[in-house]
Design goal:
The protein folds into 2 domains: about 120 residues, ATPase, nucleotide binding domain (Nucleotidyltransferase, domain 5, 2-Layer Sandwich); about 110 residues, ATPase, nucleotide binding domain (Nucleotidyltransferase, domain 5), CATH 3.30.420.40. It is globular and about 50 Å long. Strands 1, 2, 3, 4, 5 and 8 form a 6-stranded mixed sheet that branches. It has a 5-stranded mixed sheet with strand order 11-10-9-14-15. The chain is an alpha/beta fold. α3 crosses α7. The protein contains 7 helices and 15 strands. Helices cover about 30% and strands about 25% of the residues. The longest helix has 19 residues. The structure holds beta-D-glucopyranose. The site of beta-D-glucopyranose has 16 residues, from α3.
């Protein structure tokens, strides 16, 4: 059995766990520490290290970030401290833990996990994973290959940045019923469908646990299914990517 370690940096919690890389499942208890506020670079780095230490891991890690990540460097920070932009997180985390650290976008990590172990298994063609959370994250796969850092949660819809209208946080903030929120999701997904003609949409994020409340209300040409790994996908995808890159 080969294990890796995955970390998911989110707006409210930093989570990490040992991952069984063959089963795509957690192989140990998930450690969660609230994201420090403000989520500055040194404070988050300390918390990531604390998560790794609490889990008792001493080795290379994969770690998600909720923004653009190019070659370990943070390129955007829509919902986190702007001080992250330009930071070489791969280098800083690796120095902190004394092992390689592979950093990737959170939705890309979730997508990698879903494609390998979840709703996207054995699915070819164009598959788009959309995570509905604080923001909207996307991961686009073409015959199983990821096109990294697509930021399709920020497409403009009716004059707005789509995630400000259709994310799960927007639903909570505006106290929308699932029925009303589904109207916005319909706008979002039908626009995405028009732009990409995908073969499959996979809907992730915490709210995908309640997909029966909104997915049946959507009328699309494209098949649309909930993610299967739920809130583990970021951790699993990060560990899988780290193992691939550091192999
Ligand atoms: C960010 C993406 C991220 C998504 C989900 C968006 O605001 O721009 O990079 O994947 O939120 O966290």
């Amino acid at each position: 059995m080969s294990n890796g370690f995955g970390i998911d940096i989110g707006g409210t919690g930093i989570k990490g766990a040992l991952v069984d890389l063959e089963r795509g499942d957690l192989a140990g208890e998930r450690v969660r520490i609230p994201t420090p506020q403000p989520a500055t670079v040194p404070a988050v780095l300390d918390t990531v290290k604390a998560v790794i230490d609490q889990a008792g891991w001493d080795g290379p890690v994969g770690c998600t970030f909720p923004g653009i990540v190019r070659h370990g460097v943070i390129g955007s920070a829509a919902n986190v401290d702007k001080g992250w932009i330009g930071v070489d997180l791969a280098q800083q985390l690796s120095e902190k833990i004394g092992h390689p650290a592979v950093i990737l976008n959170d939705a890309d990590a979730a997508g990698i996990a879903e494609m390998q172990f979840g709703a996207g298994r054995d699915r070819n063609g164009v598959v788009i994973i959309v995570t509905l959370g604080t923001g909207i994250g996307t991961a686009v796969f073409v015959d199983g290959t990821l096109v990294p850092n697509t930021e399709l949660g920020h497409i403009e819809l009716d004059g707005f940045d789509a995630e400000t209208r259709a994310s799960s946080a927007a639903r909570e903030r505006e106290e929308l019923s699932y029925k009303k929120w589904a109207v916005r999701l319909q706008r979002y997904f039908s626009h995405m469908e028009m732009l990409f003609s995908p073969d499959l949409f996979i809907v992730g994020g915490g709210v995908s646990k309640k997909s029966e409340k909104f997915l049946p209300r959507l009328d699309l040409k494209t098949e649309i299914v909930p993610a299967q790994l739920l809130n583990q996908s970021g951790i699993v995808g990060a560990a899988v990517e780290a193992a691939r890159v550091t192999a």
